[in-house]
Amino acid sequence: MKFYCNKSNLLNGLQIVQKAVSSRTTLPILNCILVESVNGMLRLIGNNLELGIETFIKSDIQEDGSIAVPSGLFFEIIRKLPEEDIQIEVDSNRNMYIKSGRANFTLKCEDAEEFPALPAIEEVDPIEVSQDLLKNMIKNTVFSIAQEQTRPILTGGLIEIDDENIIIVTLDGYRLSLRKGKISRGHKPVNVVVPGNTLNEISKIISDEQENMSIIFKENQVLFDLGYTRITSRLLEGEFINYRSIIDPTGDLNNEVQEGKTRVRIKTKDFLDSIERASLMSKNSKNENKNNLIKLNIIDDKIAITSDSEIGMCYEEVNAHIEGSDLEIAFNGRYIIDSLRAIDDDEIMINYTTNVSPCIVTPVDGDNFIYLILPVRIR
Asked: Is the model more confident about 247 or about 67?
């Protein structure tokens, strides 16, 4: 195998596929990246058996071939090479020779035949979605994916697709996030759970541009096709929680969401800034379970925000339009901050029922996002 390539192109390709390289494994081959020539281009693959990423880069292929290269070392070598074109050659003993300018490296590699193949997914019934839409939908929901393995199905995000909508739902037991987006009509219904790690890595790879990408589902696998880059992932097995019964007992998300006894309309940035300031004083080094406790006293046309801990206290008032009963309620401040940071709308609606019932955050108009946050009991 022998080829020439541009350093920046190779480095960019390696950064993409490294996201699927296993960091902890007893199989040394999973620490490698597969490098091979395909139809006059260089193909790079990372595969940890749950997530697989392949990308194609332009190269001057002199001799076809394939090799499994130690990922971390190969990346560092390429990163530190001078800004010149790179010549790479592989001999029959699986030695890779890397040359650029006056720099020369010899790298011991593994047999490409030992590298696990990516799942074969036939591109049937692809679902077209804008890259920037999917990127924002993941950003708006991924923070409330469960980190603990006590309920494995919650370590992923539910993706639902109907005739013209795509919905992502995540839930960790303390909060729920839902984001809805529009897609072209005519798709078959889909209801699958994609691992949280896959969603995280996809959001880092896809662009902020309004370029379309394809999503293809097949049995227990999903393929995200960006053209020169393709991401394959297994799906989580099991049934996701019936989130509709939690958000809206009627099961119709197009209806007004659970009209509560207290309804607040507030500017998103003003509320977020105040909660972030209050959280500075909400730490409790003696009891981590009490960290980030923020109290809200909803009265008249304002919300009084209080945090009090061994390091000090904070009190602040934020103007709001309030309908219904006065209410005192407390939350983990981090849960509120995560949700507010994901919202681009200038104003939001917050629905409360009691101080032990979850609050529901929605847009002032429409239903493109819903956040549900459980309160903390206060004495």
From this structure: 67
